[in-house]
Amino acid sequence: MKRRYQLSPSDLKSLKIEVLENKAPFFTDDELEYYFDKNKGDLKATIYELLILKSEDSSISVSGLTTQDTSSYFKRLASKYKTFNSGILKGN
How many CA atoms lie within 13 A of 44 on its CB side? Predict the structure, then answer.
């Protein structure tokens, strides 16, 4: 499948930094490119979506030991990139 929006190497690097891929790997490069194309080349929208995807409940419980849930952390990071529709609606 040919993508309409190509992710440049510098944008790929920025994307990985912003979604903390070095600290919490989650996505392949192909997946990052897919979401960039899905968001029509909008880097901020892509970062927002990826952080929301990372915010799923990430706690693990094994033999009575539980890891900390990081979902709220990634939601807080995503809030920096959320766009708001603010404008004037045109009447008829």
Answer: 6
